[in-house]
Amino acid sequence: MSVGTPVTAPGDGGDPRPALIIGRPSPLVAAIGAELSAGPSTVALAAPRFDNAAEVAACLAAAVGTDLPAVVVFADVDPVALQPRPLLAATEADWDRCCERPLRALVWCCACVHPWLAGREGRLIVVCPTVSMEGAAGLTPYASAVEGQRMLVKSAARRWGRDGVTVNAVAPAVADLAPGLAGPGGADARRSPPAVRVDDPFRAAARAVAWLARRDAAAVTGATVAVDGGAVMAP
Amino acid sequence: MSPGGARGPLDGQVALVTGAGTGVGRGIAVALAAAGAAVVVAAHHRDSGALVEASIRDRGGEALCVECDVTDRAAVAAAVAAAVGGFGSLDIVVANAVSNRSNEAVELERPPEDLWEQHASVSLRGLLHCAQLAHPHLARRGGALLVLLSPAGIQGSERNAFYAAVKGAQRGFVKSLSREWGADDIRVNGLAPLAVTPALDKAFAQDPTMHDRLVSFIPSGRIGDPETDIGPAAAFLCGPGARYVLGQTLVVSGGRFTAL
Question: What CATH code is assigned to A7-227?
């Protein structure tokens, strides 16, 4: 797959559902793409810079073309935001990049994708790592952003239910997104041990995304599905 | 010493409350003073802050009003300096300031950029300013940073996604920073109130049926009072009784919100 290039593949119970994945290239985005491509869906990828609303809209529109998605996955994670740093050392620019920018990005994407999803049993799925649910020293700006994104998910779910759109979050362990976080200096990001071992965390997250994307998951909205092996078990 | 001469749990403590000119901020400022703290009343508009200062002093408490726009880092620094200069230390910061447009409805399908900037600048950057600038004074003395959250930041909001988002972000901030600053002997917690505020009064005026509708969902049968319901809960979280409480959100809503 490449940015803006749809691929076609068999699957989702013989029910074609064009999909769009928003996010810079990463193992997680690749895994979600592979999982969704296992269905009879076209999957487009878009990696906006998130400079402003117009840039995001143009990037998404170019990626989608005329094959409007009924499933949108927001899976953008800035690796810089996953580098632990004391809050006292954060500049205003750091704060913007790691906290406010991810929030603006999701706000802009929500505005873009709603017309595509409304009235089509649309699905919006946002990747929100578990770091926001339990917190992590050194990741305060990013944890703030993610919990804000989770509230955007819930708010959109409440608002767009009348349009037949479900909005949910999938929450991998943040240490799985940046393995260095599980080592010295980043141990706080995996303080709670998982109850079960997750061999392929990206595929596990992708499978949860694929399930939430299905039409028969219509009753699930505003939810956060943690795929961290039961580490956090937040309410 | 708390007003009236009795010893209070916050005797000898110095508190800075942002957004203290009205509503919940005012109620918390008055309650902290009643518990014995000297309070810096940081208000966006000096006039409203001065009224709160006078109200605390009239009851025998100690207070000092400063004009403070939390989006301005220098203004927050000046407020912190006023606390240390005026009362000798800073032990408690209550980050309560919120955009004065926080009650505006948001169409997430057509998000107004200026409104987002309003929310983010006050609730996110303003919180960053308060935390960073207060840290040297709160550290190693059992200091407390209390962030005013909202049930909307726990369960989302159909009508006001921006408010829910920044309040949720603040909750993520509280959890992470409590883990980061616990080693500095600083407690970071959140309080999510349901209380009568000027914003809520405005909403009631626009929709006369809203008050009774809202009350019907509150098991205690009334909407909380900022001074007598919310303030004491804030004083508890900032005081010695909560010295082992870190990273938590206390929902004070008369039982309205239970799905934490």
Answer: 3.40.50.720
